Amino acid sequence: MRGKRIAKIVIALAIVAVVYGVVKDDAAKLWQDLHVKIVERPAPKKTVWLDQGISKEKLSWFYHADQGTRTFGFPFEWFMALEQPTISWMPFAKVGLFSDTAYLDRYGFIPDTVIPGKEALPIGIAKGTPMLDPTGAVWRNPRTKKEMISVGLTCAACHTGSFTYNDTAVVIDGGPALTNLFVMKQGMGISLLMTRLVPGRFDRFADRILGPDSSIDDRATLKNQLDQVLAQYKQVKNLEERVASQSILEGYGRLDALNRIGNQVFSIDLKKPENYAGSSAPVHYPRIWNTPWFDWVQYNGSIMQPMVRNAGESLGVSAELNLTDPSKGLYKSSVDVDKLFAMEQMIKGDTLPNAKTGFPGLRSPKWPADILPPVDQKLADKGAELYKTHCQECHRPPVTSEAFYDFNNKKWWRKNEAGEPILVVENIPISHIGTDPAQAADMIARTVAVPENLGIKSSSFAFALGELVEKTVNTIFDQRKPPATPAERKRFDGYMPNELRGELAYKVRPLNGIWATPPYLHNASVPTIEDLLGDPDNRPRTFYLGSREYDPVKLGYKTDPIANGFVFDTSIRGNSNRGHEFRKDFSKDKEITGVIGPALSADDRKALIEYLKTL
């Protein structure tokens, strides 16, 4: 008997081994697909906002101003009812809500406590207006038949930064966020799938949406709506997998924004899978203070007009846009141009730049000496001379200096159509600066297929996108009663034309507030300013992103290993950390690609860093 029992055990183990051998790869892929890797950070003891020239009331509005986006593809009511994509080993066990502030903070979304005691979504998430369902009909609650409300991201989601030091969190308005949007969408897709399949989840979800006394038919309709959303998520997942070989992971604090905008409008909205491109050139979220006063924006200096920039961003995070059904009006969109204009004006301010008060509107942050170690002014004075020698030629004099506001210098300043001074932002050829070319090169190389009835003349991605956004905005203006006047349109456009360009170059801008905007270079490939100024061969080849802990000596986030953090690998195309280098072989007489100045001693780097804290 004992022998037979042992034989059965051996046979059973053999079967398990065979089955494991067959399904292990599928199981590993399933685990990878269902496992969301997000960091856990200790909660700060307090959070502070620096004075950047905008009132708390205006900031509170800005954080949640609805731009017409429907980023997640389902209503606000669903967003508040979904549970976290956590696998529980106890059947029917309850888990936390996806909308829990502490949970969303793990994706990088900053809790909004700017007005103490006021209930608010995390910074950058907005409750909107009635939205359409996947069939194009008004989305309604299956039980009450009431219209359901959209939820989406605002520009504050990507352009509000934060760092922590000694248990204090400091919010940097207009600074680069540390969000991980791709993983957030992945988490939402898994949450939706679990709501559909995991026992108990759908019932709890239905109770929150419909109420506990809803009918079987109401729940069946809700389940059908859920299936439609899951089908959309699966469609995008399939597209992502198709271009995976062209893509690199974005991680915390980065997004391939231009390619993702293109994918949304030219592939998803246009229903053309062949237009979907890989995320081959993620960039660091740029700081946005003073940008309304620049003549060109984007890292590659490719877009001029503020409205095209901002409306394009709204379309990229899934504002509704009709490009396929002429009977419903081509270019009809949910983009809210009034909110976009108001947000731009808040950042711009209501006076002109001048030597006495500097740039108006949202100002760059000042080094908080009550939180971070105070500036060594004697050392900073030495650094100021080094700045003039090594930095000022490209980055201009500090914006606090009278020399910066030399409006007679036509190389530095021009005027818009309203006669306002606009800063001329120089594009530096990649052949000189030597930084990773992917963002500029891939935008130039990308083409899109567009049907003739849309009236878009160019197949070049950048120029086609500019045309598409302009037509969308003009359609919105035309649908007003009465239609917007030419003068009103110019005002909303920031008195700037819709000019675009594609160059193998990256723009250079003033360095005010640079200390608060890690990581560095356009692709976030250098973690600290110390690394940027030092020996380029010693720049970290790999490092972790995800921690908000600030290093006030090196100026950057701490990059120690962190559980579920993003490992940044600079050996990958699009992630290179070369360029903008200070090296021994620098020569004024012989240009070397990527070398912009002589090697800096440790003492000179310390002095220059100390000065940069004062900008």
Task: Please explain how this structure is put together.
There is one protein chain. The protein contains 18 helices and 17 strands. The protein is an alpha+beta fold and 615 residues long. The chain has helices at 2-34, 56-63, 76-81, 101-105, 181-197, 201-210, 216-242, 257-269, 306-316, 337-348, 377-390, 392-395, 430-433, 438-445, 461-478, 486-492, 529-533, 602-612; strands spanning 46-49, 125-130, 149-153, 160-165, 168-173, 254-255, 283-284, 413-415, 421-423, 427-429, 505-507, 542-545, 550-551, 556-557, 566-569, 581-583, 595-598. A hairpin with a 2-residue loop joins strand 4 (160-165) and strand 5. Strands 1-5-4 form a 3-stranded mixed sheet, with no helix packed on it. A two-stranded antiparallel sheet has the order 2-3.
Give the SSE map:
Elements: H1 2-34, E1 46-49, H2 56-63, H3 76-81, H4 101-105, E2 125-130, E3 149-153, E4 160-165, E5 168-173, H5 181-197, H6 201-210, H7 216-242, E6 254-255, H8 257-269, E7 283-284, H9 306-316, H10 337-348, H11 377-390, H12 392-395, E8 413-415, E9 421-423, E10 427-429, H13 430-433, H14 438-445, H15 461-478, H16 486-492, E11 505-507, H17 529-533, E12 542-545, E13 550-551, E14 556-557, E15 566-569, E16 581-583, E17 595-598, H18 602-612
Parallel strand pairs: 1-5, 16-17
Antiparallel strand pairs: 2-3, 4-5, 6-7, 8-9, 10-11, 12-15, 13-14
Helix pairs in contact: 5-7, 8-9, 9-10, 9-15, 11-18
